[in-house]
Amino acid sequence: MDPEAILSFCAVTGAEAHVATEYLQVADSSVEQAISLFYENGSQPLQSRDTSGTGAGAARTTADTEVRSPIAARRDVLVDDYSGEDGMGYAGAFMPPYAGPVQERVREARSIFDQQPGAGRVPFRDFAQEAAEMTEGDSGSSAVSSRRSRLADLFKPPFDLMHPGDLNSARSEGVREGRWVLVNLQQVAEFRCQALNRDVWSQDVIRELVRRNFVFLQLPTDNPEGSRVATMYNADSYPFVAAIHPKTGELRARFTRFGSAVDVVEDLTNFSLDNPLPSRRNPAAGADAAAAGAGAARTPAANSVYNLTEEEQLAAAIAASELGNGLAIVDSDEEIGSSDEADSYSDIQTIDSDDDGADDSNDDDGDDDNDDDDSDDDGMDVDGASLAHEQMASQAAAEAAGPDAWYRQLPANEPPEPAAGPAATRIQLRFPHGRPVVRRFALADRVAAIFQYLKATVPGAADSVPEVLFLGRRLAERVTQTIEEAGLANASVVVDV
């Protein structure tokens, strides 16, 4: 190594001779490059740098050889409750400490207007159990103020009036008991819904009316069953109150007058009287109707004057009196009901007999030709009496057979299907749990042909009359009309067995 180069490097950098020798060897005896490397290296000797680098590399190698054990898997809950006990959901976890009073007010509002125990609600809940839990919670909690208790009682849903189930179970109960299904959909955020519980369903008159004539089903729209019913019946405003046919599920009426209890009573009463179900012909009569029905069951039906209309009674009385037998239209005095009524019929016969006698005396003073006219009149009277007896006998036989006698008399075989043509029409039969069936019927066929087809083809229709509706009207009341007269050409009817 050149001594002058070493001296020059040491003079500039102030380093030792062996340090200068190392840098000059690296820089190939170039003093300038050696000095530059020296300063870039932090004025440190190359031998110590290499030694430290070697040590660091060895440490890294040793560290790399030590493999960390894997983290053990574990299960945990990220969020303890989705809805949160404070009713704030996920937002409750990020609320600042000063938001405590706000959360308290939210909890209070939720407990008053959405009185459901627990964090969430299930679609098919036991309202009686919920009411008992609420009662126990209110009595056992000393922190609940009296004002809050009064508000909770004021807006409490009518748990004792509500059906504890879904729409299908309510319809089944309505079919068994012959009552309409009254559906009430509630939105917790809508105050009109809370006012409905406070002002309408809490009235004793309305509660008794609903309990007697309806199966009451109140559902909130934020649970699956309430949302399904709201979608099914296109509920666009709340509170939603509607009468549902228990057998077909048809929405028959929607009630919108909730301003006063008088309006609600009027609407529900008019609907009950105008739309009696087949098993309950007079739903508003109550116990009086039941007593009257029991009395009617004890009354003989055959040839009874009470089974006739007023016009038929008058015609039968006149025909019988002209025959000279005022009591011919009844079997005995017991069917009339009292001796006074028997006397009244005897009076009618006596008056008519006197008139006939007077007429006969006047006729004797006249020409002898009138005798032929009298004989003709007697023949007409006999025909009128026979017709009255036939009407009474046929009506008595029909009542003895029951209202469904016409259905039992239908043949159990399927009626022939006519060929397509101008004399035939296609009718769609829509069933609640299946695809619709399209079949041809002759326009001249009676409506009873549709029931005969259902009786022969639908399981379970042979025992009872199926409910067949067209535009809200029962076809069982039009079995004697033709399909064309009933307006069923190319029609679609609803069938429920």
TrEMBL record:
GO CC list: nucleus
Source organism per UniProt: Coemansia biformis
Keyword hit for Oxidoreductase: yes
One BP term from GO: proteasome-mediated ubiquitin-dependent protein catabolic process
Protein EC: 1.1.1.8
Record protein name field: UBX domain protein Ubx2
Biased composition (Acidic residues): 352-381
InterPro entries membership: Thioredoxin-like_sf, UAS, UBA-like_sf, Ubiquitin-like_domsf, UBX_dom, UBX_domain-protein
